[in-house]
Write a structure and sequence with these properties.
The protein has 137 residues and is α+β, with helices and mostly antiparallel strands. Helices cover 50% and strands 19% of the residues. It contains six helices and three strands. It has a three-stranded antiparallel sheet with strand order 1-2-3. Strand 1 and strand 2 (17-26) form a beta hairpin.
């Protein structure tokens, strides 16, 4: 069985581009990934144990990263990136230009809606899953 973890960006009203990025893989890949991820987070060398890793906060030294040096933030980012890169997960992303989506012919939009793809985020996920099918074929 395949599982996925995705995060959307710019999905707010007025965004010009909606994106969905994430990872797909066999369910058995996520346990070891989670173990390795937590091993990095549990290192006693960090200023504190993070509850979650959020890239924007890491880059700007905000929220959980207040008090972390740039070197510490860069190091944890690198170590977590290495955990992902060592995993068998497939990195995948899709983009919808909101202006173009809004210009869809009403009949095209009705067809998308009949397939459960009437919103940009729905379409983004469908694109990611279809790309996964192409990669595993």
């Amino acid at each position: 069985m395949f599982y996925g973890f995705f995060d959307g960006s710019n999905t707010h009203v007025g965004a010009k581009v909606w994106t969905l990025c994430g990872f797909l893989g066999e369910d058995t890949a996520f346990g070891p990934l989670d173990d390795e991820w937590n091993r990095v987070l549990d290192k006693p060398s960090w200023p504190k144990r993070l509850k979650r890793f959020h890239m924007v906060e890491c880059v700007h030294g905000e929220r959980e990263f207040v008090g972390w040096s740039f070197a510490e933030r860069l190091t944890i980012f690198g170590e977590l990136s290495s955990v992902i890169m060592a995993s068998p997960l497939l990195a995948i992303a899709s983009v919808v230009i909101t202006e173009d989506f809004a210009k869809l012919d009403p009949e095209e939009l009705r067809l998308l809606q009949s397939e459960g793809l009437g919103e940009p985020l729905d379409l983004l996920l469908a694109i990611c899953v279809s790309e996964r099918d192409k990669c595993s074929a």
